[in-house]
Amino acid sequence: MRVRAIGWILLGYCMSGTAVEGADYAKAPADERLERHEFESKHMGTLFRVVLYTADKATAETASRAAFARVAELDAIMSDYNPNSELMRLCKANDTAPGKPAAVGAELFDVLQKAQITSKISGGSFDVTVGPVVRLWRLARRTQQLPDAKELAAALAKVGYEKIALDPAARTVALKVPGMRLDLGGIAKGYAADAALALLKEKFGITRALVAASGDIACGDAPPGKEGWSVDIAPISKNRKPRTLTLVNRAVSTSGDLEQFVEINGVRYSHVLDPKTGLGLTGRRSVTVIAPKGVQADSLTKAASVLPPAKALAVIDAIDGAATYIVVKDSDDADEQVTTSKRFVGYLAK
């Protein structure tokens, strides 16, 4: 299968699996008996895709339904759009009792722990407490007007990953400032892709599978007869060719402003925000991160988008198995500035 990652957009080009029919089927090796199946379902504001190889269609359908149910379960926990999600209940409880530790479920605690890891290693360039600022920019995209300076300053006063206190022993979360709003939009899809892929393996024994949530992709074992899953990184310049990756038991995430941006007063602002300034990134950029898990790749693309490329490179290179490919253009007419990490070439298709 070849998957093209374009910022948050994912376009799939299907490669047929090995087909063995009739009497030959009984004599074929086990891997050649596997058939390719693909399913789609909308969750977390995007289209999730499950591609898997199984011996029969019935198993594939049952497994894919279970995978999508797992994603829906996590969405109900982590959504900041759903006022009744566990995440939003935590935030609202903090409004009435600021700083009081609140017990949370295993999944919410786990994703917050993983978010804090990325926040710390990136110096706060990725930060799930950015919710108050995100809400201002959602309005800005609708009104085509920049957030009010005073409102932005007030929102930024509630931002900062150090304002979250996690207690692993008690599995509690304390938010230290009233009015804090957590936004898991930069990590939840990668987390959900990991969870769905794990469910396919643990519950159904399906290891040759891929789960994609727009630009966030988690890959399992390679398809039968293939070296790995082929993933295209679409260029931000029309005259450039895609870079093709070959991935096995790795995740990849691409974040950019190709589709998600707003232009205000002649300035193009990305949907990716700098948690320290509260402003959308300007210029053109596409950041791809490969990592062992989707939750890492998803969050690290945001951090690497915000950080200067040299600092992003240092962060990524310090993570075992991680790699990055960063393309920046100051304007549509400017030359591309390309930064690649030391491991990136190892993931390129031969």
TrEMBL record:
Keyword tags: FAD, Flavoprotein, Lipoprotein, Magnesium, Metal-binding, Transferase
Sites where the protein binds Mg(2+): G186, D298
Cofactor dependence: Mg(2+); Mn(2+)
UniProt catalytic activity: L-threonyl-[protein] + FAD = FMN-L-threonyl-[protein] + AMP + H(+)
InterPro entries xref list: ApbE (IPR024932), ApbE-like_sf (IPR003374)
Protein name per the record: FAD:protein FMN transferase
Bound cofactor: record note: Magnesium. Can also use manganese.
GO MF term (any one): metal ion binding
Pfam families: ApbE
Family indicated by similarity: Belongs to the ApbE family.
Enzyme Commission number(s) from the entry: 2.7.1.180
Organismal lineage: Bacteria, Pseudomonadati, Planctomycetota, Planctomycetia, Gemmatales
Signal peptide: none
Origin superkingdom: Bacteria
